[in-house]
Write a structure and sequence with these properties.
Blueprint (H helix, E strand, L loop, with lengths): L6 E3 L8 H7 L16 H11 L5 E6 L2 H12 L5 E6 L2 H12 L3 E6 L8 H10 L5 E7 L1 E2 L4 E2 L2 H10 L5 E5 L18 E5 L10 E6 L1 H6 L12 H8 L10 H17 L1 H22 L2 E2 L11 E5 L6 H12 L1 E5 L8 E5 L6 H17 L8 H12 L12
Parallel strand pairs: 1-13, 3-4, 3-5, 5-8, 8-9
Antiparallel strand pairs: 2-10, 6-7, 9-10, 11-12, 12-14, 13-14
Length: 399
């Protein structure tokens, strides 16, 4: 029998703060009562603050981030539309699969897992598209499977450099509320996220940011949709209501989570994530291991995907941490299964929690057969957290 808590260090769902959990412990409410809608209007305003948009529309959909993906596509595109996408991790791969299943004509750029969105290749395709046949460009801001953050501003610059009018779709599921997202500055048309990561809520709410250009496209798009119809959502959301039964308890949780972000200050939230992530990276360097992310400029501040030696199965590391030490680490996905484990460091997290993750990981690595010196990673992270720098432990260099 396990005692104490099970420590959660996966990149989502993340830890739900106690005040967010308490906020959800409310009786059911009348979703059509005259005073129901007003309480949610500030929630949309705060979501826009986190997205850094004044021009866009924030929308909450019952469902996951994947539901928000589908809503974004079906409301703004037409069957057979040509779209430009990249595969460089599990979630960018799933986005390609969804687009293909929905009947879109997908130009796929494949790059090794560990690299970011291939801006140069995107620019080449866009420059060659003189007839404007590409209707949308898709970019994964933070690829959760590999711990790689892409430069969305550079994607927008490539589109603008080609004088291209395609819509820009951005997957911000594991970045919104943890890594800086600038919807307006980057010219993002559809920003997709979920409630269960940096927003510190349970899974169950898809989050969308919709630009005026995308909203206009939704008025003529012909892909089949019903439940996720923007027009119905916009009409009801104007008063804080929904066209169907909303997950009221989750809305209360999101309200409390937004209050936490505002109290800490969004810029401080982002700085905290950067600080904690660097502590993890310095620990990995001290262990003599490598990240999947190939370039330091693309290291993620929300998740680190860590390679194990060739003679070690990362699944053993994960199982030992869970079974013996009540600690959940993230698994390697798809082609990275058995080769990688992940430490999620986002959401409601502090230095002590990160140090716990690193200490348990050292034991799990050792028991799985990795030659590791106990305390090496913990000490490297401690030095960083204590002084803001580490004179003895360099940051990880690219392979």
């Amino acid at each position: 029998m396990k005692t104490g808590i099970t420590h959660l260090y996966i990149p989502g769902p993340t830890n739900v703060p106690d005040d967010v959990r308490r906020a959800m412990n409310v009786p059911m409410q009348d979703m059509r009562a005259h005073d129901f809608g007003a309480q949610w209007l500030s929630l949309y305003a705060d979501l826009k603050m986190v997205m850094r948009t004044t021009e866009g529309t924030a929308m909450l959909l019952p469902g996951s981030g994947t539901a928000a993906w589908e809503a974004a596509m079906t409301n703004t595109l037409n069957p057979g539309d040509r779209v430009l996408m990249a595969r460089h991790g599990q979630f960018s791969m799933l986005w390609v699969e969804m687009a293909q299943r929905l009947g879109l004509d997908v130009i796929v750029v494949d790059v090794p897992w560990g690299q970011p969105t291939p801006v140069t290749e995107f620019a080449r395709h866009l420059a060659a598209d003189r007839a404007g046949e590409i209707k949308a460009v898709f970019a994964t801001h933070n690829e959760t499977a590999t711990g790689v953050t892409s430069d969305i501003a550079a994607v927008r610059a490539a589109m603008d450099g080609a004088f291209h009018k395609a819509l820009l779709f951005v997957d911000a599921v594991s970045s919104l509320g943890s890594i800086d997202v600038r919807m307006d500055d980057w010219g993002v048309d559809l920003l997709v996220a979920g409630s269960q990561k940096g927003l510190m809520c349970p899974a169950g709410l898809g989050v969308l940011g919709i630009s005026p250009k995308a909203m206009e496209a939704s008025k003529t798009a012909t892909m089949r949709r019903a439940y996720f119809e923007f027009k119905d959502m916009v009409a009801m959301n104007a008063g804080g209501y929904f066209p169907y039964t909303p997950p009221t308890q989750l809305l209360h949780g999101m309200r409390a989570a937004m209050d936490r972000i505002k109290a800490e200050g969004l810029d401080n939230v982002l700085a905290r994530h950067a600080r904690l992530a660097e502590g993890v990276r310095r620990a990995v360097a001290a262990w003599g291991l490598q990240l999947v992310a190939e370039y330091p400029v693309n290291y993620s501040n929300t998740v680190s995907a860590i390679r194990v030696p060739a003679d070690v199965d990362a699944r053993d590391v994960i199982k030992i941490a869970y079974d013996r030490y009540a600690t959940s680490l993230g698994s390697g996905l798809s082609q990275l299964a058995g080769k990688v484990f992940r430490i999620g460091h986002l959401g409601d997290l502090n230095e002590g929690m990160v140090l716990t993750a690193l200490a348990v990981t050292e034991m799990a690595l050792s028991e799985a057969g990795v030659n590791i010196r106990f305390g090496s990673g913990v000490a490297a992270a401690q030095a960083w957290f204590s002084t803001g720098r580490s004179a003895q432990t360099p940051a990880i260099a690219a392979e």
